[in-house]
Structures are given as structure tokens and as C-alpha cells.
Amino acid sequence: MMGGVCAACGKKTGIFGSRRLPDGSRVCRACQTMIPSPFLEEQYASAQDAKNGVEYGKLALETLYPAFTATARYGRMAIDERHGLFTVCDATSIGKDGRLKAPSPGIYPCLAVTEASFNISPVSTAPVHSGARAISCRVLFSGYLERCNVHIHAVIKKNVSCALMPDGDGGAVWQEPDDLTAFCGCYRQMVETAWKRMQATEQARQEEKRMEQERHQRAREEAEHQVRQKECRETDRVRDARILFMLGEDYTEADLKRQRAALMRAFHPDNGKVTDPAYAQKINDAYECLSEYLRRRGKK
């Protein structure tokens, strides 16, 4: 059987090195390194899952991997309580400083994973011996990455000794180990802290948006106020000029010129009756104001 086209990147791929998905599509080796394992481990994993995996993997490598620093670990699971992140990997993949030794796309925000649970199940299916005081169990982490419609199932610890306690019906039940209880508490606290931080961030964003809207509203009101003030000043100037020229509201350009000529004859400094040249200037300013008002009204 010949190879085909990678479902994630669209490039040609051969049989060797590529992975065949349940729907018959294939994923090349390069894309496999970009896709978190849960995307391809689904029972009905498809080409769309591969595409979603590459998209998520790129985002994780760009934003989550540089930020991740483990603050608590249990088996193969490590959490970053400061940033609300977790990953499942081998213990040797994390250095003493809590950083991943190599880039990994398999890092998840705890708030993006719902239905998170830690489940304990016996390693062996054989009946428990009546005199046994402990049993070997495995710890499984499960969650649902809702945005990508992917379920996460990972055995984070294979052999855990769990104490057995009588259940009152002649049988026994295993108890959760103390270190797992403590780790679950850390995980729940991380989720709660991340939730509160997200709410605080959203509230701050909404407050900033509200303040920005108020700033725009104040600026708009101030601009409108300035326009109204300008209109009022202009109205007052036109009114005072009409009073000076003794004109009504429906004056014409001919009326304006006639009144200006009469006023200039009466108040021009050269006629010897008025010594202050400010009168003539006031007449000229009023004339310009009324002429401009006429032009805006479109009357001649």
C-alpha cells in the first residue's frame, strides 16, 4: 500500500514514519511531534482531530511551554500552580528547576479541561485475598478538553500501594494514598486560583472598557458643548451686529450695504464728529459678521 497525504499539513507522506488514524487518514512524522497524544489516541480519531491537534500544539509551544514551570508533581503528572497549567510526561522530562527539558505540545490550561478526575483502580483483576492489607493500584487522570472535543486519559502512576479497609460486607475497599490526596488538593487549589484570576482579569477588562466608554462619552459631550458654545457666541455676535445696523432677521445684502454706508458716514473719523477710530472698526467687524451670516444662509 502506498502512502498518501498528511491530514494535518497536506504534504505527501509515506507509510513508514506516518501514523494511520481510525478513519483511514494519515499523519506525517513532523506533524506527530506537534500534536499532543490525546488528539490521536481517541477511538474515533479523524483527520479533523489531527488538524485541531496541530493548531493546539502550535499554540501550546508558543505560549504555554515557555511559561510552564512545575511546582508540584505526582508520578507522570506535573502542575504549574502559578500559571494554572499541567502536563503528563515522564519524570525525566522535567529538570531540577521545574522546566521541561524539551519543547512539548502536551501542556494544558487547567480551566480549559473540564470533568477532571483522579481515579484509582487495581493493577490486577484477581480477587483480593481476605488477609491482604494493601493492594497495588494504578492512578488514572481523566479530563475533557472541551474546545477541541478531546478526552484526556493518562495513567500517571502505575504501581501505588493502597491500604485496604473492610467495607462492612465482608469485602475491602482501598484508600487513597496521602500523597495523592495532597496532590489532588494542589490541583483543585490551582483551578480555584486560576478561576479567580480569570474573573479578576475579566472584571478589570470590563472596568477598563467602561472607563474607556466614559472617556469617549465625556469627549463627545465636551465637543458638543464646545459646538453649542460656539453657536451661542456666533448667535450673540449676529444679534449684536443686527442691533448696531438696525436690521431685522430677514435683511438682504443691499440692506446691509446701505446701512453700512450710513453708519460709516456718521461715525467715520474723517467727518470730524468721532475721534475714536474704534467705531469704524466696530462697524466693519459687524459688517463682516452679517455678510458671513448671509452667505451661510444662502441669501443675496
How is the secondary structure organized here?
Layout: E1 4-5, E2 12-13, E3 19-20, E4 26-27, H1 29-32, H2 37-41, H3 47-64, E5 72-74, E6 77-80, E7 85-88, E8 107-109, E9 113-122, E10 134-145, E11 150-166, E12 172-174, H4 178-245, H5 253-267, H6 278-297
Antiparallel strand pairs: 1-2, 3-4, 5-6, 6-7, 7-8, 9-10, 10-11, 11-12
Radius of gyration: 41 Å
Strand content: 15-25%
H-E string: EEEEHHHEEEEEEEEHHH
- What is the quaternary state of this protein? single chain
Mean pLDDT: 88
Runs with pLDDT <50, length 5+? none
Termini separation comes to: 92 Å
Strand order of the main beta sheet, please?
5-6-7-8
Tell me the domain tally.
3
Backbone structural class: alpha+beta
Number of helices in the DSSP assignment: 6
Which sheet architecture does the biggest sheet show? 4 strands, antiparallel
What's the helical proportion of residues?
40-55%
Number of strands: 12
**Global geometry:** elongated
